[in-house]
Amino acid sequence: MKCIYASVRPEETRMGLVEAGRLQDYIVERHGSGNLVGNIYRGSVSNVVPGIQAAFVDLDLDRNGFLTLRGDEHLTQGQQILVQVVKDCRGNKGPGVTQNITLPGRYVVLEPFGSRISLSRKIAGRAVRTRLRELVQPHVPRGMGLVLRTAAGEAGDDEILADLEQLVRSWDIILRRSRVGRGPQLLHRELDLSIRMLRDYVTADVDRIVVDEETAFHTVQELLRSLGLSEVRAEHYEGTEDLFTHFGLDEEIAAVSDRIIWLPGGGYLVFDYTEAMTVIDVNSGRLTAGDSREETSLRTNREAAAEIARQLRLRDIGGIIVVDFIDMDTEAAREEVLQILKQEFALDRMKPRVLGFTRLNLVEMTRRKARRNLAGALYTVCPMCQGSGRVESPETVCVEIRRRLRGLFSQHAMARNLLVTVHPQVYEWLAVRGVRDMEKEFSCHIRLASDPALMAGAFTILNHPG
Length: 466
What we know:
It is a single chain. The chain is globular, with a radius of gyration of 29 Å. Helices cover 31% and strands 28% of the residues. By secondary structure, it is an alpha+beta fold. The strands form five sheets. It has a six-stranded mixed sheet with strand order 16-17-18-19-21-20, with helices on one face. Strands 3-2-1-14-15 form a five-stranded mixed sheet. 28% of the residues are buried.
């Protein structure tokens, strides 16, 4: 069975989904960071760029929304349109928006501009699928579409229809708001995480929800009653210790940020991120004596496939993902690893796609991007390395100082007594190896100083009254 832990604090809300004692999902939403996904706006087209088939839409936010246009779609500057945010802001990019608006409920997703009724692939059985389709078809307003979610397979007819009716009423309210006034305006705000988790994460195999804030706890209790989820037990955690620490999840959460993730059999994964994609390298690590190379490779790759699916959910990594599995000699082994990936991805709400092995034995995958991933929520770019993970070596800084001194002395711009201030790591290197050579070359006296406030590659050279 599964358990959901929710920590609600004034500055942030955190949610963790635990199954069989292991963290399977982890979401952090900072209340001041402007989570926009799901919000619906009346926007004003500020610019149309035919060359990339896109438009920029003024949403009355810091940055315009980016709207991809269909081939036959034409917008004009100043035109008022309804859009929904599907991707949060990233770096200097504004939010991604779409005109294909959806309103998700507990059992159904209403598509106001859709045209068909679809069902979750996880709803099994032709008879069940046919019954559900026939149930909702007479109740879907003309010109709208609908998706029946997985939870609808276990719900009563009245619950499904009530959910649909509520969504239709919500859309009617949004439309009426959109007709009042002009200019960009927020028409509908997505639910908070503490409420959204009941809609999106509570399934038949969730038996307990633990909440550490009293108001949120009572809200969860009321929603569970109204949704008819009496089998799900809500608990109010009143301890002084952090909720995730108390239930022994803090170490797993801390490991989510690690570059290296160890596997049970001694292998390990290495995560690297670029602007275009995420690259994951699988390594065998400590080989087990007596095992053949093929047995070791397959066993490590099996463990890696399951853990990669889990890590992608925990880190909320989206976009293009490339995995370098350990080489396998047989097609059957490669197919087994692909099937493990697909099986584990069936639990993922971001709908990953496994595209198979390339000729270089790499597996290509894609995963939907929506909200800022966990790294984007928790970290900022390092001011030292600007995100590269590297800074100048002490030797490189020493070479640059000598180059600078040659230029200055050739212009007769420096005295013979100098003060050179550097980062502490560079100071240690220069004090042993660099200063004497520079003093000898330039016939000067150099006083070396250390300043931890300096960037690793930065330095200052000043005349020093000797």
